[in-house]
Design a protein that fits this description.
The complex is a heterodimer. Chain A is of the alpha/beta class. Chain A has a seven-stranded mixed β-sheet with strand order 1-2-3-5-4-6-7, with helices on both faces. In chain A, helix 2 packs antiparallel against helix 5, helix 5 runs antiparallel to helix 7 and helix 12 runs antiparallel to helix 13. Chain A has a domain of about 130 residues. Chain A is built from 13 helices and seven strands. Chain B folds into four domains: about 220 residues, Pyruvate-ferredoxin oxidoreductase, PFOR, domain III (Pyruvate-ferredoxin Oxidoreductase, domain 3, 3-Layer(aba) Sandwich); about 180 residues, 3-Layer(aba) Sandwich (Rossmann fold), CATH 3.40.50.970; about 70 residues, no CATH class; about 120 residues, Rossmann fold (3-Layer(aba) Sandwich), CATH 3.40.50. Helices cover about 35% and strands about 20% of the residues of chain B. Chain B is built from 20 helices and 22 strands. In chain B, helix 1 runs parallel beside helix 5. The longest helix of chain B is centred in the N-terminal third of the chain and has 21 residues. Chains A and B meet through helix 2 and helix 3 of A and helix 14 of B.
Chain lengths: ~325, ~625
């Protein structure tokens, strides 16, 4: 399947998150637009603000004589609010392209993800700017930089919960998923779309008890990734890679949480980009360590874990090749 | 009483019907009814549902006290209350059915689909109970149809308690010609967080119920719907209030779980964070009020949600909110009282405690939505009033609104509902936290985080600087200013509108959720030539203006309420000793008019027929001059 199609599938898989983010941005934008438009002043505004429950019961014109015109903003707040409004509009204009990172060959995955998330975080810093401006506390010197982006490390927990997720298109040689580990928090969802030769089990390095991890060559299988409400990472790989699902809800122990485990028929015994054969073998051994059912004798038990163990033994010639 | 002979199918076109699904607690009657009610509403029918829930989590099964169920009244036109009696019932056993019979909930010719497994049950005691129940019910002309509900469910699931409800839903779908695709979508939605096989099994059970009904029942009903252009939504009052709170821009809800209010916070907690807000479950009711007050003091738009006993616990903190003039919305979903009373049942129990529940003079606004739709809109108005007048606004709904489901036009959301009402610009030097306008009692709300806005607050008597002051004039001034705000707000209110003629023999006054039943009863009386009108109050503190003048146009004024009042003619009850319904007390004091009342507190909503009966009794008293 062409990578564009797989990207569309991955994007669809994170759609609940992207919709949540877009909705939050749109709401903030409406609020700042309302403030800038000076709503709250006209009789119609007053009537609507008071709500339908008051209709026929409250004389809105009289009621509005007691409101304090509190929606008025100080003239000094207008410039930063307009800048924040522009930043939010810019984010919305980008549409779904905001959530798709196409990694140039050889680029550093970690650095590029950090940059894109900072751009996404502009939505949150714009909200901060609006609040500061409303309170008359905005200072050009101290706060203007906020509209240049907000690093993920500076996002609050509530903001992290609104993270839209990312789809990352990249070449197999650049597929070093451990570089995104710092961003796997508070419901973040990252889906890799990998082209070309790729390490067979690189995603195994991201398996932690509370993170849903899925590696697959079957694009139709991302439903569980989408449905999982916590932090999740998935990779759509070319045929021939290992396929597995680590579902945090499937069991208490690590091996119980592996609900799917399919191994490649064979592994190419050569480095992929900067990823050596030894490192690839380590990925697979890690998968074995995590997924194999421990038996009382200390040996690996039956399928699929037993199968994995036997397969790994067949790959022993990899051991010294670094 | 007869067992059905199954022949050719007769389909009757009718304007409305009322259906009951009655089961042991835990057998899924609510889920069955929710899906059926939602399906009817989505097909364009008017709908009103009422839950029957035992207060105990798991009462003993197969007893009259274990009844759990739901009543769904639906029709071609808009439905505003649960009606008089049910015309069709699905009962999973004889004992739960008997409980409904004893409450006179079933129409004399009610069609009853009863599980057939009890008649020949292996347990002799169960057979004996069955026979006694059927004997007791033989005084009515019910039409019994014995249905192998459990037997059919067991063909699909191992535990029939987890399947009979969907089989029953299938029968209802066939009897009322419901759109099965809507039912399937509802099931998929309800079980969306479960494995797909759960949805599949439930749909299979529904189809099994449809097939059984198609093959064995000789009757069907068609209830048409009126096409509509606007978008409609279907929800219960707690959902409507929760979504209304978000639409109103409320940022924080502090609560402690209490029936029947808890589902408001469930609904909020699912979505409020997406809108920048949060739900805080405090360690108790008192703390929940404290957290909400603290959030409001800090500049947030805060809400606390509770029910009667929780309201009692919050008493002192609500007085603090009134004393320090922080805007606060309190949603009180009323249930039966006093004490823990009737946790799952309805009562308009908290009007007086909401109005007067604090020591000293503690003026606050109290409003009461009349419909599920108004539960949504009331939250928006409550926020605006609270912030404009720096006051506490109590929204009084009840268990009837909270759990009933109604269809209404989707409100066009408006950002102006959410617009920050706070002025957070730097506080001018010298401006004091309570710099009251001596005419209106209003003062600027100062947020402590605003530049120059730092100040402390105290529940003790204080002066304009928010400093503790026991000086007589300070205390008098504070009292006057807090009360003045209420008078100012009252000056913005308009006289209530009447339903019916502007003068006559009797004016029935209600409040809150009873409107639909009262209007139906009044219309019935009017159609028989009686000169009766009604007026449903929504603003209870301060009261809407002009009541005394309106009352003067009627020979009699009577409140109808779901709460307790003494019945004239009862032992020791005379003019001196009689205690009135809660609104009646307030109206008598407020207007000096001899307002009478008919109230009832059966733990369930009032029925139009009962109100009608008491309207007639008021107009045509018996020989002792006492209403029947």
């Amino acid at each position: 399947m062409p990578s564009e199609d797989r990207t569309a599938i991955a994007l669809e898989a994170i759609r609940p998150r992207t919709e949540l983010y877009h909705s939050a941005v749109a709401t903030t934008l409406e609020q700042v637009s309302g403030l800038l438009a000076g709503t709250g002043e006209s009789p119609e505004d007053q009537s609507i603000a008071l709500g339908d429950f008051a209709r026929g019961h409250v004389n809105v014109e009289r009621f509005s004589t007691f409101t304090r015109g509190s929606a008025k903003i100080d003239p000094s707040a207008e410039q930063p609010m307009r800048a924040a409004q522009q930043a939010l509009n810019e984010l919305l204009r980008k549409g779904n392209s905001l959530f798709v990172l196409k990694l140039m060959e050889g680029a550093n995955l970690g650095v590029q993800v950090a940059k894109r998330l900072a751009t996404i975080g502009t939505a949150f810093s714009a909200a901060h700017v609006i609040e500061l401006a409303r309170r008359g506390q905005f200072s050009e010197d101290r706060h203007a930089f906020l509209l240049d982006g907000l690093a993920f490390s500076d996002w609050s927990q509530a903001e992290r919960a609104l993270a839209p997720g990312l789809v990352i298109e990249l070449d197999g040689a650049d597929f070093i998923p451990a570089l995104v580990a710092p961003y796997l928090d508070a419901g973040m969802k990252i889906a890799f779309v990998v082209d070309g030769d790729a390490p067979a089990a690189a995603l195994s390095r991201l398996v932690t008890p509370g993170v849903f991890v899925q590696q697959t060559s079957d694009e139709s299988g991302l439903d569980a990734f989408t449905a999982w409400e916590g932090t999740a990472v998935a990779a759509l790989l070319p045929k021939g890679a290992a396929a597995f699902v680590h579902d945090p809800e499937a069991g208490e122990t690590t091996y119980e949480r592996f609900t799917t485990l399919e191994l490649p028929g064979e592994i190419r015994k050569r480095a992929i980009g900067g990823i050596s054969v030894f490192q690839q073998a380590q990925d697979l051994q890690l998968l074995q360590t995590l997924a194999v059912v421990p038996s009382p004798s200390g040996e690996a038990a039956s399928d699929p874990a037993g199968k994995l163990s036997a397969w790994l033994l067949s790959q022993t010639s990899l051991a010294g090749d670094r | 009483m007869s067992t059905a002979d199954i022949k050719s199918v007769e389909c009757m076109e009718i304007p409305e019907h009322t259906v009951e699904i009655i089961t042991n607690s835990g057998e899924g009657a609510q889920k069955c009814a929710q899906i059926f009610g939602q399906t009817c509403a989505k097909m364009g029918n008017g709908v009103w549902t009422v839950e029957i829930i035992p207060a105990e989590i798991e009462p003993p099964h197969h007893t009259v006290t274990s009844t759990s169920g739901n009543i769904i009244r639906f029709g071609t036109e808009k439905i505003t209350n649960w009606g008089d009696q049910s015309k069709l019932a699905i009962a999973f056993n004889d004992q739960v059915l008997l409980s409904r019979h004893r409450l006179d909930s079933l129409k004399d010719d009610c069609i009853i689909l009863l599980d057939s497994c009890w008649q020949q049950h292996e347990d002799e005691e169960i057979r004996r109970m069955y026979e006694e129940a059927m004997d007791e019910m033989s005084t009515k002309n019910y039409r019994f149809v014995l249905v192998p509900i459990e037997e059919e469910a067991l063909k699909i699931v191992d535990n029939p308690s987890h399947g009979k409800n969907m089989f029953a839903l299938g029968m209802l779908a066939e009897i009322y010609q419901r759109d099965v695709s809507i039912i399937e979508k509802q099931i998929a939605h309800i079980f969306r967080l479960k494995p797909p096989k759960v949805t599949e099994k439930n749909i299979e059970l529904v189809k099994s119920g449809i097939a059984w009904a198609k093959e064995n029942l000789d009757f069907q009903f068609r209830i048409n719907s009126i096409p509509f252009d606007e978008e409609r939504i279907v929800m219960n009052g707690n959902q409507a209030a929760a979504i209304g709170a978000i639409a109103a821009g409320m940022e924080m809800c502090a609560m402690y779980p209490i029936t029947p209010a808890t589902s408001v916070s469930h609904e909020l907690s699912e979505i409020i964070e997406s809108y920048g807000g949060m739900v805080h479950q405090a360690e108790d009711e008192i703390a929940a009020a404290g957290v909400a007050i603290g959030a409001s003091y800090a500049g947030k738009v805060a809400l606390t949600v509770t029910s009667g006993p929780g309201m009692a616990l919050k008493t002192e903190f609500l007085a603090l909110a009134i004393m320090i003039e922080v805007p606060l919305v309190v949603l009180n979903v009323q249930r039966g009282g006093p004490s823990t009373g009737l946790p799952t049942k309805v009562e308009q129990s908290d009007l007086l405690s909401s109005l007067f529940g604090q020591p000293g003079d503690a003026p606050r606004v109290v409003i009461a939505p009349r419909t599920i739709e108004e539960c949504f809109h009331a939250m928006i108005t409550a926020r605006r009033i609270a912030e404009t007048f720096r006051c506490v606004v109590i929204v009084l709904t009840d268990a009837n609104l909270a759990t009933g489901v109604q269809q209404f036009t989707r409100p066009p959301l408006d950002v102006r509902w959410q617009q920050g009402a706070m002025d957070q610009s730097p506080v001018p030097e010298g401006l004091r936290p309570y710099e009251w306008d001596l005419e209106t009692g209003l003062s600027r709300r100062i947020i402590p985080g605003s530049p120059g806005g730092q100040h402390t607050v105290t529940g003790l008597a204080h002066d304009e600087d928010s400093l503790v002051s026991y000086h007589p004039s300070s205390n008098e001034l504070g009292m006057k200013m807090r009360s003045r705000k209420l008078a100012v707000f009252q000056s913005t209110l308009m006289p209530p509108e009447l339903h019916g003629e502007q003068e006559g023999d009797l004016l029935v006054v209600g409040w809150g959720s009873t409107e639909g039943a009262i209007v139906e009863a009044v219309d019935r009386a009017c159609s028989e030539g009686y000169k009766v009108s009604t007026c449903q109050l929504t603003f209870l503190s301060p009261l809407e203006p002009g009541l005394k003048e309106i009352f003067s146009r009627f020979k009699n004024v009577m409140t109808v309420e779901i709460n307790y009042s003494d019945t004239p003619g009862d032992p020791y009850i005379n003019e001196d000793s009689r205690r009135y319904g809660q609104l009646a007390w307030v109206l008598r004091a407020h207007t000096l008019v001899d307002v009478d009342c008919w109230t009832s507190c059966p733990g369930q909503p009032l029925r139009p027929r009962d109100i009608y009966t008491h309207i007639i009794a008021k107009l045509e008293p018996n020989e002792e001059g006492v209403a029947a």
